[in-house]
Write a structure and sequence with these properties.
By secondary structure, this protein is of the alpha+beta class. Helix content is 57%, strand content 10%. It contains nine helices and four strands. It has a four-stranded mixed sheet. Strand 3 and strand 4 form a beta hairpin. The N and C termini lie far apart (55 Å).
């Protein structure tokens, strides 16, 4: 109910949505004011003015096509200013982060970083670390390195995954292991 009330208040005087976000076969109808207040989404090159109905058509990259429902949830969060305690699986969390980082949804980037931190452990470490490299997020990478403890290091060594890590990570891990050996 609060979501609806906030949407009505934000879009007062504006009856119909004036932005159509196209993701694969799905179209999300929203308001320019709301999108503009929360992101840089309208600055995409794939944005066209539909002169028939005076709406903006925004076409997202195909990388988001399989995650249209997640993107719709993100756009819905623009009206409330929070994504809440939605139960996102690991893959959805990555999609939310990628979208938020790409389109400068700063509050959402911070929220997702906190969620990554809460779920970071020996089982998720390698996947999150690889993702941080893929998207070039030094904050997330640093979070992974801070999480490094004996349990995580030993799991990486035993699985052989340590060899797949980048040079920076291997050096830090080696130094950490040397420190653990020398100083307990």
């Amino acid at each position: 109910k609060q979501w609806y009330q906030r949407r009505v208040a934000i879009t007062a005087g504006q009856k119909d949505p004036d932005v159509n976000i196209h993701i694969g076969d799905k179209v999300i109808h929203t308001h320019k004011l709301v999108v503009d207040m929360n992101s840089e989404l309208l600055n995409l090159e794939d944005t066209e003015l539909n002169t028939e109905n005076s709406t903006l058509d925004v076409y997202l990259d195909s990388e988001f096509d399989d995650h249209a429902d997640v993107i719709e949830m993100i756009i819905g969060s623009f009206y409330t200013g929070c994504i809440g305690d939605v139960d996102l699986n690991d893959e959805d969390l990555k999609v939310v982060f990628k979208f938020a980082a790409d389109f400068l949804v700063h509050w959402l980037v911070e929220h997702v970083l906190k969620r990554f931190q809460e779920t970071l452990n020996e089982d998720t470490f390698l996947d999150v670390f690889r993702f941080s490299n893929k998207v070039g997020c030094e904050t997330l990478k640093a979070m992974c390195l801070e999480c490094m403890d004996g349990t995580v290091a030993n799991a990486l060594i035993k699985s052989g995954d340590l060899l797949e890590m980048d040079f920076h990570f291997v050096v830090v891990t080696d130094l950490w292991l040397i420190g653990q050996t020398l100083y307990g």
